[in-house]
Design goal:
heterodimer; A: 336 residues; alpha/beta; Rossmann fold; 8-stranded mixed β-sheet; 4-stranded antiparallel β-sheet; 11 helices; disordered N terminus; B: alpha/beta; 14 strands; globular
């Protein structure tokens, strides 16, 4: 199975993820025996093309951040393969993996927790360069100045500490750090959800400008569906460790085929009272089940408005129902 | 003047900090009509929560202090009440729910015990009556097997369910006003939709007025009758909900609406972004607090703080510039 987007002219696959699984063991008792596992990511397959933005959405605890971290080998996957520019990352170790990491960077959610409060901005942004032995001291200073300019921060701020900056400015420092090693792929893990509305737009616009300038590829993880729609080329929806739907942006938002995607989209408030009153809303009942003990068959069946007996028996395949449009639901044809 | 059940006039609140006195609320006046839902929108630090906390006498003093204003509720000024008096109003006739359902419940007491407490305290029910009423309240907010779940502790409830418990608790004494301070911010969108739906249903069933504080213009659009937009400790725009979204008139409101991507948008355009940062006010503003970020700003904005002026009967804006024409207001 391949998730190649046929409409995309730029068909170079940068990242290929196959059946990726990440299970966190649960230990209990005196002997700390393993009694189960939190199936945070339970078999996801997708491609990301060079220069595109893939949006990954889902509710908290669905495994979207774990997916991102597992791709970067910050967690070692339980099973599956991650090919980055043709190299299998899962089997890389030590120095070889460290070299690959230069090309893949991450921007974190919380700009307050992700910057060391005892380091100056120059140290924070320059650290990746030092760790990877790129350039002499003087070159690093110049590069840091340049990076700060790139993210619209005054280079004279380099000697300041993170607490002197606002949330939006800190997130820019995080972006500058991620750009330091000139990566080709950046995972943005909820980069704007901790920021105020008027600041979110600043950071998103910056990310878009940088993408254009450096031909960056983003995996944009978020729970804000409107922002994902704005920034992504293709969007994938995740629920309880599995992908339920993947399609290009327009298709996913205008013609969602999975009942979960439909419910999720209808739950997003629209900043327009007239349009909001006209919308049909599907309100899901209940909460997301525990990933330590997911429902049998289709993961979504316990909250699904159209579930039938069949859904409890077998897990629906993540299948390509139309070119580039993947859905994991037995009844997806109903909504075509 | 219409009948307001809560009438706040000229409210000012300051906080003493090591860096100086922060003027969090700088003269806020608004009224709440019976049975209406009032949305209060603004970014963090704009004073929206502090306004409501001041009204309820919940500002810790020191460092905070309500230095001016009045808040009249059923003929009495809440700001002049003693602690003992206002405690009877709070949780009784006016109740409040908070943002974080994880920290607003006491983790070592059962849900039942926490629900029964206000009933026994404010209404004077017996333990047995209170326990029955608590079960009713829980099922009213949509928690299945309510009776059996009264003995559970907060950690046995999910985030959405805890927020339902908070709502049940707030409604337990049939308040006339419910103040909700970002009640859905910590929740996922599908759970957020459940909670806003619940509040809408309960509002019409119980006929109470709701003040809904949020930074999310989307939530307010579907919920509120009237909206106040706050910035720098001031109300900068006030309008009926449809009017506000159709004709935003303050540069800040225009910018805020423009910076939101929409899930139902047709075209992909660059987001409008407001440059700069929200202010921290160490002085009471004597100029428009938004002027440094405003592209319409004229000389007058830097010298004089605009006051709320009507642009249509129910729509008021605090701006020296008419953003429709770009010309100064006369």
């Amino acid at each position: 199975m391949s998730t190649t987007d046929n409409n995309n002219n730029n068909n170079e696959v940068l990242l290929k993820v196959e059946d990726l699984m990440m299970h966190f063991p649960i230990y209990r008792g005196v002997f700390q025996r393993q009694v189960g596992a939190v199936r945070a990511v339970d078999g996801v397959t997708f491609d990301i093309h060079r220069g595109e933005t893939l949006g990954l959405v889902g509710e908290s605890g669905c495994g979207k951040s774990t997916t991102g971290r597992t791709i970067l080998q910050l967690y070692r996957p339980t099973a599956g393969a991650v090919h980055f520019e043709g190299t299998d990352l899962v089997n890389l170790k030590g120095e070889e993996l460290r070299k690959m990491r230069r090309k893949m960077q991450m921007i974190f959610q919380d700009p307050y927790a992700s910057l060391n409060p005892r380091m100056t901005v120059a140290d924070i942004v320059g650290e990746p360069l030092m760790v990877h032995n790129v350039g002499t001291g003087k070159e690093i200073v110049e590069r840091v100045q340049h990076l700060l300019e790139l993210v619209n921060l005054n280079p004279s701020f380099a000697s300041r500490y993170p607490h002197e900056f606002s949330g939006g400015q800190r997130q820019r420092i995080g972006v500058a750090r991620a750009l330091a090693l000139q990566p080709s792929f950046i995972i943005c893990d909820e980069p704007i959800s901790a920021l105020d509305v008027s600041i979110q737009a600043q950071v998103v616009n910056l990310l878009e400008e940088l993408q254009e300038q450096f031909n960056l590829t983003y995996l944009f993880i978020a729970h804000d569906l409107s922002m994902v729609r704005h920034i992504s080329d293709r969007v994938v929806v995740m629920y309880l460790g599995v992908f339920v739907e993947l399609a290009d942006r327009e298709t996913l938002y205008s013609n969602p085929l999975h009942p979960y995607t439909q419910a999720l989209l209808s739950a997003v408030p629209v900043p327009d009272p007239v349009a909001d009153a006209k919308r049909q809303r599907t309100i899901l009942t209940g909460d997301v089940p525990s990933p330590a003990n997911p429902p049998s068959g289709c993961r979504f069946r316990t909250r699904c408005p159209i579930a039938e007996a069949r859904c409890a028996e077998s897990r629906p395949e993540f299948r390509e129902i139309k070119p580039g449009h993947f859905v994991a639901c037995f009844f997806a044809e109903r909504f075509l | 003047m219409p009948d307001f059940i809560l009438d706040v006039q000229g409210l000012e609140t300051t906080f003493k900090t090591p860096d100086g006195t922060v003027h969090a609320v700088n003269g806020v006046s608004f009224g709440l009509k019976e049975g209406e839902t009032l949305g209060v929108v603004g970014e963090s630090g704009c004073g929206k929560s502090v306004t409501m906390l001041s009204v309820l006498g919940l500002i810790p003093n020191p460092p905070g202090k309500v230095i001016a204003g009045k808040a009249v509720f059923s003929g009495q000024d809440l700001l002049k009440m003693s602690n003992e008096e206002i405690r009877h109003v709070r949780g009784g006739q006016i109740s409040m729910i908070f943002q974080d359902p994880m920290t607003s419940l006491n983790p070592v007491l059962t849900i039942g015990r926490q629900l029964e407490e206000p009933l026994m305290l404010h209404i004077g029910m017996t333990k047995k009556q209170a326990s029955e009423r608590a079960a009713e309240l829980l099922s009213m907010v949509g928690i299945p097997n309510a009776k059996d779940r009264l003995g559970d502790y907060p950690h046995q409830y999910s985030g959405g369910m805890r927020q339902r418990v908070m709502i049940a608790m707030a409604l337990s004494c049939s308040p006339q006003i419910l103040i909700a301070d970002e009640p859905t911010t910590a929740l996922d969108v599908t759970i957020q939709a459940q909670i806003t739906d619940l509040v809408k249903r309960l509002r019409s069933e119980l006929g109470m007025a709701v003040i809904w504080i949020t930074h999310d213009l989307g939530v307010v659009a579907g919920l509120a009758d009237r909206v106040l937009v706050m910035y720098g400790g001031l109300i900068i725009e006030e309008a009926p909900v449809k009017d506000l979204y159709a004709n935003p008139s303050h540069p800040y409101t225009i910018g805020l609406l423009g910076s939101l991507p929409r899930v139902d948008a047709k075209v992909h355009s660059k987001l409008y972004s407001i440059d700069g940062l929200p202010p921290v006010l160490y002085q009471k503003p004597n100029a428009c607090p938004f002027a440094p970020r405003c592209k319409w700003a004229i000389d007058r904005c830097w010298n004089e703080n605009p006051v709320l002026e009507p642009v249509s009967p129910e729509h008021r804006v605090a701006c020296w510039v008419d953003t429709k024409t770009g010309r100064p207001r006369s």
